[in-house]
Amino acid sequence: MLDKFREECGVFGIFGHPEASNLTYLGLYALQHRGQESAGIAASDGTSVRHHKAMGYVNEAFNSDALAKLPGSLAIGHVRYSTAGESLVANAHPIVVDSVHGQLAVCHNGNLVNAGELRDALVRTGAIFQTSSDTEVVVHLFARSREEGVETAVVDAISQVRGAFSFVMMTRDRVIGVRDPHGFRPLALGRLGDAWVVCSETCALDLIGATYVRDVEPGELVIISKAGLKSIKPFAPARQSQCIFEHVYFSRPDSYVFGESVNEVRTQLGRALAREASVEADVIVPIPDSGVCAAIGYAEASDIPMRMGLIRNHYVGRTFIEPQQSIRHFGVRVKLNPVRSILEGQRVVLVDDSIVRGTTSRKIVRMVRGAGAREVHMRISCPPTVSPCFYGVDTPRRSELIAATHTLEEIRKYLDADSVAYLSLDGLTDAVRGGKSKYCTSCYTGVYPVAFPRDEAAYLQLALKLNPEPAKAETSAPIADLAKQIVVG
Ligand code: SF4
Fold it and tell me: What is the pLDDT along the chain (489 residues), one digit of tens a residue?
């Protein structure tokens, strides 16, 4: 695997279209980059909710027979990469339950930080859990709610969970989209003729020919039924903490996320990086695909030409068998190959969006040197990643994050680069509307907007990656800003 944070999940829902499950399949196809472990769809024909889920990519999990068994004009779907709970089909979404309030199907993108605590309380009162997914607590809370009616029971259940969530839910006759009050994860609203669509990213709207209307707002619940779209904001307002990593890496560059073009933000990050960390060089080379937008911005602002000096093999897939440790370096070679005619004798600026452990970056720098580059300068379009994420993103332990345990000079030496520079936190937050007041930047600062209870470590798979010390409270001092120190060897 390339050395990156792993995407979380993608959600999609549609109300009022005769081909709801087929369109959901296509929507999930567009969101495949957000999760590749499992895929699932639930559909309703107005009388009952049916569902199908399986491990694998969307096109492996579904065939035309499976889709034909999901009739109706309402559907929701999910692609999953497990951030909490094991990678099993039982944990795949949608989670579908039958309750006193009727059937409910739930798809979740995010991570609930109090799921373990709620689960323990529910188990003590007799609840039997079928999965290890944090999302299942929501369906139990819904089923046990004493509120009258589906909408109030959903609100009652969601009011009890904390953390990051963009939910798409479905009952027999309505689709519900919810975003947590902090707005960690994205959720867009669109229209396809008379049908309504909710989805993680607008690239899913583009694929099915739908039009982007607006984002579901932080703390907003949209209920779509035959009566139309109803919006309510039943939760106490909270400080906005949209995930800035969606712009840095996760989302597709052709999407609009949190109301802004990912491509434009990423290109702006490259421009800012060039201004903060310029270097005498002959050619800008992106590390594909993640570094391309930032490299375009860096080249534009530095007036140095950008060339595709590394070519990515797009057909590696998941079936590639890693060779034994002794010849493991083939792993990167299989994915990327240097273009000697572009690199030989040149002073090269390699641009990437992030460094996690540094293992892949080091192999790439060596590969570029091996192709004859005279100098290799590494430029990263975000600040040093020093802390794990607890809000729905799979990150290694703090001790495995190279920037958490090494100085910039040590990173340069490890990568075998002539210089290394990261974008500053200000450079990052200045590139998005609302900046620090609207975005979560915890993986760069170690300052967490939503406290993470220590005893959750016993439950959440993600939390098992914690170091012995508990997650810092919001008052913790941020790390020193390393970004403007350019270390030259
Ligand atoms: S910690 Fe990082 S990856 Fe997690 S939500 Fe915040 S910005 Fe996103």
Answer: 467 776 679 999 999 999 999 999 999 999 999 999 999 999 999 999 999 999 999 999 999 999 999 999 999 999 998 655 666 788 899 999 999 999 999 999 999 999 888 999 999 999 999 888 889 999 999 999 999 989 999 999 999 999 999 999 999 999 999 999 999 999 999 999 999 999 999 999 999 999 999 999 999 999 999 999 999 999 999 999 999 999 999 999 999 999 999 999 999 999 999 999 999 999 999 999 889 999 999 999 999 999 999 999 877 765 455 555 555 556 688 889 999 999 999 999 999 999 999 999 999 999 999 999 999 999 999 999 998 888 988 777 788 899 999 999 999 999 999 999 999 999 999 999 999 999 999 999 988 898 876 554 444 434 334 433 433 333 333 333 333 333 333
Question: 442: Cβ below 6 Å to ligand 1?
Answer: yes
Q: How far apart are CA 71 and CA 411, in angstroms?
A: 54
Q: Whose CA is nearest to atom 2 of ligand 1?
A: 443
* Residue nearest atom 4 in ligand 1 by C-alpha distance: 389
Our answer on whether the CB atom of 444 is closer than 6 Å to any ligand 1 atom is no
> Is residue 443 in contact with ligand 1, taking CB distance under 6 Å?
yes
Whole-prediction pTM: 0.90
C-alpha 260/C-alpha 277 separation (Å) is: 25
C-alpha distances (whole Å) from 441 to each of 297, 299, 478, 479 are 22, 26, 10, 12
Active site residue 9: yes
Quote the CA–CA distance of 184 and 392 in Å, as a whole number: 9
CA of 10 to the centre of ligand 1 (A): 16
Asked if 185 contacts 166 with a C-beta cutoff of 8 angstroms, the reply is yes
How many whole angstroms separate alpha carbon 98 and alpha carbon 194? 29
* Residue 440 Cβ < 6 Å to ligand 1: yes
DSSP sequence for 60-78: HH--HHHHHT--SSEEEEE
